[in-house]
Specification:
The structure is a single chain. The protein is of the alpha+beta class and 273 residues long. The chain has 2 domains: 6-113, Roll (Diaminopimelate Epimerase, Chain A, domain 1), CATH 3.10.310; 118-267, Diaminopimelate Epimerase, Chain A, domain 1 (Roll). Helix content is 25%, strand content 38%. The chain contains 6 helices and 17 strands. It has helices at 32-42, 73-87, 124-134, 164-168, 174-184, 218-231, and strands spanning 6-10, 19-24, 47-54, 57-63, 68-69, 90-96, 99-106, 109-113, 118-121, 148-151, 155-160, 190-196, 199-206, 211-214, 238-244, 252-258, 265-272. Strands 1-2-3-4-6-7-8-17 form an 8-stranded mixed barrel. Helix 2 crosses helix 6 and helix 3 (124-134) runs antiparallel to helix 5 (174-184). The radius of gyration is 17 Å and the shape is globular. The two termini are 23 Å apart.
Amino acid sequence: MSTEILRYAAFTDTPEGGNPAGVVLDASGLGDAEMQAIAADVGYSETAFVTAADGNDLVVRYFSPLAEVPFCGHATIATGVAWGERHGDGLLALTTPAGLVEVRVADGVATLTSVEPSSAELDDDDLDVMLYALRWERADLDPSIPPRVAYAGAHHPVLAVAESDRLAALDYEFDRLAELMAARDWTTVQLVHRTAPDRFRSRNPFPPGGVVEDPATGAAAAAFGGYLRELGAVSPPATVTIDQGIELGRPSLLTVTIPETGGISVAGTAVPI
């Protein structure tokens, strides 16, 4: 029996934008090696596999071309929209390796609510390695958004730059950053510049997945939302918008809702490729 592999672009309303994700809505007969092989063949930063389903209760796993990851936001959005197109709108409960993630699907928009977010200090030596790999200096950083490691299902170091041109001219040492991220179990790096009180521009290196840069990263957006709340950089309930993928020619729009407590919501559209 053949496996149906769907391809969706998430956080966009056009197939040419957003972040492509593979989606397998029935992976109940697939083993780990088969899912890994499919993800490698699809070649997107992640492919989501629904390994079990009972009504709207789904078990979902995520694979990059190189390895399994605990959670992926854009593949979750793609899975929610794909599921909704076939089974109708509603509230999905996704059991993921990172924990329970709720996804509300309505009119082609999926909104995920992350696990409880948290953040931790970024080790000074690790920061030096990251800055060296990114070819940045400490003076480039925005002191109002200090470096941290943010979490909302996966770990993402956050670095904010004060000037937009540092972000626009991103050119980093892939192997050096990949080695550090693998040692620390980080998924992507959330590089941001604040363009307005409630708007950010983001770029996300993703060497652990074998991808130079991710054009839309829902998991990092959720982690960042939790970090902003913990930092006191927003006054919840708040909504911020993240623009990503512009430099890659795949513009993406992520809407992040930050409540006073609990998980962070990230909403976006998704369209078949």
